[in-house]
Amino acid sequence: QVQLVESGGGLAQAGGSLRLSCAASGRTFSIYAMGWFRQAPGNEREFVAAITWNSGITRYAASVKGRFTIARDNDKNTVYLQMNRLKSEDTAVYYCAADRLYGIQTLSTSPSSYDYWGQGTQVTVSS
Prior knowledge:
The chain is an all-beta fold. The protein has strands spanning 2-7, 10-13, 18-26, 31-39, 46-52, 58-60, 68-73, 78-83, 92-100, 116-117, 121-126. 0% of the residues lie in helices and 53% in strands.
């Protein structure tokens, strides 16, 4: 089992920045990748960014590319999402997720590929 705890959400003005953190504990050696997803009221959960745990390969949604950066600190078992130039449409609950290592895998953008989830943290961007 892997436990995930997000932190760092809150209120920001449009054009501002926030940094989310996700601390992983438990069987972290079994993680292939970590991802960030978000869900706004009435919307489906959507992919934001992901990073492979060992090699640091990244992938971003088109809507956040160039504004958000995902990074990991393996020593701290923590993944970060630096969010710059925030827009009102970035308002959502942000979830951290972990994709378990099975074998030969690719970095997925689908929520169904991820095995473990955090509780979510609210990000609100005021215009």
